[in-house]
């Protein structure tokens, strides 16, 4: 009996020791990342790209114990291929280190209230846009997919007119500094060839927020956009509800219906969207354009003395499979000179394109 009792006590003692050891291990794992740990992770990322998710998770769950200097930012850019998700997670961790309370993701009731207010503000604003025109500077480039090394293709100047009815018309004014004398307003600028995009003014946000889209949202992090505190939400709209069309021209033209998912940056003060990152979902496996992504930054502009939140910059990327290779096209669109409808779009010296090299993929 005595030996049995001793054995039981020994098992209990051993179990307690294991529990203490496990708790100590978990506590050690929960400690903030040191600079040395983070740098080691960055170097491993080059040989194991799949570890990016692990690094982002560690930044969000453990935080960091070091100051994010320009040197750390530069190393992060170079080792991650300038990955935006990783950069954002690092900056978020640094804000949490400096001011833990300011970086807390709001609880569900607060997040739902912010989202509901943003939905109302956005749909009200989209319905109240005036007739206006703007000038778009479009830099188009191409790269082998996954390399991020883009070769300039051409530079376009496009005049865009928007009517309160939702109609958008595009007039191609200049290609690589050469005026297009006989260009007439059309529903896109596809006459220039290559990749074109439309719908930045209303379509994107309307698709996300209109009730019939039944979009699903989840708050995931906080961020600072042009000095404004934001809450970042994941969103997704199913293909049958998004009503998104993706057209791809490789030998022949094909169109498919897709869903849409991505992230929204919502200003906590004004309850307005300052940034959208989106990508098409449910693209058929045999479709010649396997991915389509578009990021839009919004800012306040003045038209006829009134302020409106409108696109500032759009980054459109499309991958294309052709002859056994996959390429990625990029359209970087700057929205400039918003004016009331009927104003003249003027070409200025700063519209002159940079030197353009034809791609040779």
Q: How would you explain this protein's 3D organization?
A:
Strands 1, 2, 3, 4, 5, 6, 7, 8, 9, 10, 11 and 12 form a twelve-stranded antiparallel β-sheet that branches. By secondary structure, this protein is α+β, with helices and mostly antiparallel strands. Helix 2 (about 35-45) packs parallel to helix 4 and helix 3 (about 50-60) packs parallel to helix 5. It is built from eight helices and twelve strands. Residues about 1-30 and about 355-360 have low confidence and may be disordered. It has two domains: about 30-105, no CATH class; about 120-350.
Q: Please work out how many helical segments DSSP would assign.
A: 8
Largest sheet report: 12 strands, antiparallel
Q: Helix share of residues?
A: 25-40%
Distance between the termini: 82 Å
Percent of residues in β-strands:
35-45%
The general outline is: globular
Low-confidence stretches: 1-29, 354-361
Q: How much is the radius of gyration in Å?
A: 25 Å
